Amino acid sequence: MSSHETVHTVTERIRQRSAATRDAYLQQLESHARRDRGAARLGCANVAHAFAAMPGSDKLRVVAQKAPNIGIVTSYNDMLSAHAPLASYPGLIKDEARRCGATAQVAGGVPAMCDGVTQGTPGMELSLFSRDVIAMATAVALSHDVFDAALMLGVCDKIVPGLLVGALQFGYLPTVFVPAGPMTSGLSNSAKAKVREQAAQGLVGRGELLQAEMAAYHSPGTCTFYGTANSNQMLLEAMGLHVPGTAFVNPGHALREELTREAARTVLGSAGAPCPPIGRVVDERAIVNAMVALLATGGSTNHLIHWVAVARAAGIVIDWDDFSALSAAVPLLARVYPNGSADVNRFQAAGGPGYVIRELLDAGLMHEDVLTVRPGGIREYTRVPEGDAGQRLRWADVGASRDDSVLRPAADPFSATGGLKLLSGNLGRSVIKVSAVPRDHHVVEAPARVFASQGELLQAFQAGELERDVVCVVRWQGPRANGMPELHKLTPPLAVLQGKGHKVALVTDGRMSGASGKVPAAIHASPEAHAGGPLARVRDGDPIRLDAVAGTLDVLIDAAEWQARQPAAMPPGLHEDNAHGWGRELFAGFRRNALSAEEGACTWL
């Protein structure tokens, strides 16, 4: 158990709250685990279909010799930099499986979209719900039910949470996640942000902006800022679902192939002990460990949605109060852009996930008595992989921070509290990422300017209508209204206004992505405006106070007047009535069924 009182208390609260649903989940897991192995429990025609495409030697191995069979679920495509490196992985895994006396098959692929491509476009309205599509695609892939273990190949924003939710439906299978790593460093994130702000002011043109963007995003691998994609990898390490230290090894690095092979060995139990089923690994302690790691590194706000859904898939119920309580107790150990100037490659060079996990364990802030996919438990994740001349893997102690401007020990953190905060008041419940916001902007009080879309706000900025202290309210952006897109395009203009000395904040029922930056943004407001939430009552000129110190978000008008106000209706033709093109029609059922952001925006409960 964790020795820290808050971590222990929150974990016990989650355990008690989840007792019935977790027990039901484990009972289902056990009933599936007691069955015969895949090839033995199916009829002969089923088996023949399942293995018809296999080489003859593999057919003999899996059918007659009853060898284990790994199901590979992959997010590979060659359009997106984070997923392109996965092309070679199935061949490596199959080869390693044969060396271990087993077999492997690509069970199926899942879609992988990039929010960087779809930011500010109609396609962004599919983004959040793509997580649940990925979960369903994972379930379809594994539903062939001929697998003894599974490997999940994926990295980015919705892909990892979707793969996790899908894999947990088959919680009796040992399952290991296999990443591809970040691209090497290009134009720095801070330099890129500066050019974006210049473009927002019309100081540079499209040519200069495009040159900067392509210098930043330049090669295979994930983006190098600490957004949702890279936060995913930190959380998977903290949950013990990777081969230790795999997260931030670049594509093409000499160790990358051997780490992928080690994933196959691990899931087969060839790394020293049987790999436990994922439904047992992902319990309330593992979920809390992930939450703590997120807070300690100033990670993505998106995970206050995604990890709620992941937990629910394992029968565990968490909420934003749990995040808030942990954030008050967990120190901030990392400064990685947008929570600092370093990118994830510098984070890795300074000590990376291994350093963070060791510091948290030693401070009693993470549970050490947890299952992981490796025999050495979570302590294995405090070590870093190395290779000898033949690239045979070994792991070494991470040692002290090699850059204390990026990583600091728990005894001397950047901040005594975590990077995320819960806000509540008469504008509902929302969250803010405070780790990247300057302290003198943690409290903003100013008149509201209400917008129905991010396009409206951008137009007002270009027209010079926001040159003042202002709280920009962008509503009708929740899961039921339009799929809860990220509003990251708003960061540059709001940063420009803040840079001119204005007190500026954003309040929205939409998302601001893992790249939430230096402008205070109260996001994920629940209940959303389309569900009758309080943002629907706000009018232009209403004084709003966002106080990230006290944890409050309020409109400062008479309580009786506020309660008497009728909520505005979503403008005709906006979102729901206008969701045509780009496949949005196909997601109408998702919008109708989506739970609130605090409930994970799940569409399957």
TrEMBL record:
<protein>
    <recommendedName>
        <fullName>Phosphogluconate dehydratase</fullName>
        <ecNumber>4.2.1.12</ecNumber>
    </recommendedName>
</protein>
<dbReference type="GO" id="GO:0046872">
    <property type="term" value="F:metal ion binding"/>
</dbReference>
<keyword id="KW-0119">Carbohydrate metabolism</keyword>
<dbReference type="InterPro" id="IPR004786">
    <property type="entry name" value="6-phosphgluc_deHydtase"/>
</dbReference>
<keyword id="KW-0004">4Fe-4S</keyword>
<dbReference type="InterPro" id="IPR042096">
    <property type="entry name" value="Dihydro-acid_dehy_C"/>
</dbReference>
<keyword id="KW-0408">Iron</keyword>
<keyword id="KW-0456">Lyase</keyword>
<keyword id="KW-0479">Metal-binding</keyword>
<feature type="binding site">
    <location>
        <position position="156"/>
    </location>
    <ligand>
        <name>[4Fe-4S] cluster</name>
    </ligand>
</feature>
<keyword id="KW-0311">Gluconate utilization</keyword>
<dbReference type="GO" id="GO:0019521">
    <property type="term" value="P:D-gluconate metabolic process"/>
</dbReference>
<dbReference type="GO" id="GO:0009255">
    <property type="term" value="P:Entner-Doudoroff pathway through 6-phosphogluconate"/>
</dbReference>
<keyword id="KW-0411">Iron-sulfur</keyword>
<dbReference type="Pfam" id="PF24877">
    <property type="entry name" value="ILV_EDD_C"/>
</dbReference>
<dbReference type="InterPro" id="IPR037237">
    <property type="entry name" value="IlvD/EDD_N"/>
</dbReference>
<comment type="similarity">
    <text>Belongs to the IlvD/Edd family.</text>
</comment>
<dbReference type="InterPro" id="IPR000581">
    <property type="entry name" value="ILV_EDD_N"/>
</dbReference>
<dbReference type="GO" id="GO:0005829">
    <property type="term" value="C:cytosol"/>
</dbReference>
<dbReference type="GO" id="GO:0051539">
    <property type="term" value="F:4 iron, 4 sulfur cluster binding"/>
</dbReference>
<comment type="function">
    <text>Catalyzes the dehydration of 6-phospho-D-gluconate to 2-dehydro-3-deoxy-6-phospho-D-gluconate.</text>
</comment>
<feature type="domain" description="Dihydroxy-acid/6-phosphogluconate dehydratase N-terminal">
    <location>
        <begin position="68"/>
        <end position="378"/>
    </location>
</feature>
<dbReference type="InterPro" id="IPR020558">
    <property type="entry name" value="DiOHA_6PGluconate_deHydtase_CS"/>
</dbReference>
<dbReference type="Pfam" id="PF00920">
    <property type="entry name" value="ILVD_EDD_N"/>
</dbReference>
<comment type="pathway">
    <text>Carbohydrate metabolism; Entner-Doudoroff pathway.</text>
</comment>
<feature type="binding site">
    <location>
        <position position="223"/>
    </location>
    <ligand>
        <name>[4Fe-4S] cluster</name>
    </ligand>
</feature>
<dbReference type="GO" id="GO:0004456">
    <property type="term" value="F:phosphogluconate dehydratase activity"/>
</dbReference>
<feature type="domain" description="Dihydroxy-acid/6-phosphogluconate dehydratase C-terminal">
    <location>
        <begin position="406"/>
        <end position="601"/>
    </location>
</feature>
<dbReference type="InterPro" id="IPR056740">
    <property type="entry name" value="ILV_EDD_C"/>
</dbReference>
